[in-house]
Fold these 2 entries.
Entry 1:
Amino acid sequence: MTTKSMSYDHPTYTCRHVAPLNLPAVAASVSAGKFLALVDMKIKQVNIVMNIVGTNDSAGYGIYNGTTSVGAITMGTSSVGHIGTAYATDISISAGSFLDIRTLANSATLSCSAAIEYEVVPGATVTA
C-alpha cells in the first residue's frame, strides 16, 4: 500500500463533506454501521433521520471513535422523519480508523439513515 500527501491548496481542504450511512435495526449495543476514514479527518457532526419508528423510548445510537464514546442521539419512538443531531466538534479520526455507530437500547424496528459531516485535515496522508 502506498501513501502520498495532498498539497495544501488541494480543493478538498476548502469544503466540508457529507457521507451517508444506513443504520438497520439491530440488537442493543451492537454496531449498526461504521464510517471508515481513508485520510486523517475531523468529524464535525452526525445527523440521523428516522426511517422506521423504534419500539423503545430509549432507542437511539451511541457514536464511538474506535472504543471511545464521542456522542449519542436518542431517537425513541418519535415519528418517521424525526432528526437527531450530535455535534461532534473536531473529533479527530486518523486514516485507517473508523467512527462506529452503535444502538443504545433494544428496538425491534428502529431503522435510520445517518449523514456524517467531516473535513479532511490539511496535509493529511492519503492511503492508496
Entry 2:
Amino acid sequence: MSAGRPKFKKQIMTLEDLLSIRIKNNKNAETKKKFKEANMTKKLFLDLYDILTLLNYNVKTISKEFRLMYGICDFLCELENGEYLIIECKTHCSNTYDNNNLRFSFATGQLLTYRTVLSMQYRIDKEKIKLMLITDEDSLLTLDVINTENLNIDYLVYNEEGVKYYGKNGQTKSNYK
C-alpha cells in the first residue's frame, strides 16, 4: 500500500442502523401536501414529543414526512426500546361531498400498509411497530373501526381545544391542553 493512500476501514451497516440514520437525517419534510394538513402537522410537530411523553412513549427521534418504499408517513418515531411509532394525520374537509368519518377511517388502512412496508423494507418484526392516527376532530366511525376490528392503533384528536386520547373501547383516556 502506498504511503499517500488513505486507509479505509470496512464498516458493515445493519438495516436498523440505516433506518436510524434516515430518521435522524430526513430531508423529506417539505413535500407538497394539502395546506390544511401541512399546517396541522407543522403545529403538531412542536407538541409531539411532549404529547408522546405524556402517553408513556420514550421517544428517541421524530422524523416528519418519512418516505417509505411505498408512501410517505406523516411521522416516524424511533423509540428508546427499539420499537417504532408510525403516525398518520388527517384533517377534516369542509367539502360537502367528502365524508370526514370515512376519510379518517380510511387512514387506518394507510397505517396498516405503512407498517407492512416498514417491516418489509427494514426487516423489522411487526410487533415492534406501533401505530397512531391523529385527526383534528372526533370520528365515532373511526373509533368504532379501530375497536371492532381489534386494530392496535392509538387514536388522538389534536386541535385548538387540546389533545384527546382514546383508549380501548372508545373511552376518552386523557385530555391534554
